[in-house]
Each structure stands twice: as C-alpha cells, then as structure tokens.
Amino acid sequence: MTVEHIPIELLTRTQRQVFYAAIDGATTKEIALSLGLSRRTVEGHLARIYRRCGFLGFTDMVRRGTLHHDCCGIREGDAT
Ligand SMILES: [Zn+2]
Which of 11, 18, 37, 67 could lock 41 by a disulfide, CB 3.0 to 4.6 Å apart? Predict the structure, then answer.
C-alpha cells in the first residue's frame, strides 16, 4: 500500500496535538477536553488541518493519518 507524506510540518503545535489525538481514536469532544479547548475551537483547528493537508474530513484524516503515522513514526514530541 502506498503511504503518502502528510505535511504535518505545515500545522501549528496545537493542530498537531489535535491531529495525533484524532488518529489515536479520540473524538472531537475528547480532544477538546484533553487540550482544554472548546469544541468549537477544536473544530476550527480541524478545518484548517483538513485544508492544509488536503483531507476530505475527519474519517479521511484518521485513515490517511494513521498510515502516515505508521510510516514515519512522528509523534508529538518531534514537533518543532
Ligand atoms: Zn511522512
């Protein structure tokens, strides 16, 4: 299976935290609680993540993000 590179380097630190939490299985509500953000704020981050990385939506992000995660092994701590 081809694994694409997802340009997470284009995301802010918070957006990366949202992204990794989502591909680890968290819901929008759970992400909001864990990061101390409102659900609306998380949804705003998600919209920017979709646009910057070219995801079609949450499910597409999780599917493609999980493949990328397995391929590159990039975690939160690697964020610059
Ligand atoms: Zn990659």
Answer: 37
Q: Which domain holds residue 48?
A: 8-72
CATH number at residue 17: 1.10.10.10
Residue 54 counted as domain residue? yes
- For the entire predicted model, the pTM comes to 0.86
- How is the chain classified by DSSP, letter by letter? ---PPP-GGGS-HHHHHHHHHHHTT--HHHHHHHHT--HHHHHHHHHHHHHHHT--SHHHHHHHHHHHHHHH---GGG--
- For residue 62, the CA-to-ligand 1 centroid distance in Å is 14
Q: Is residue 42 part of a domain?
A: yes
List residues, by chain if needed, whose CB lies under 5 Å from ion ligand 1. Answer: 5, 72
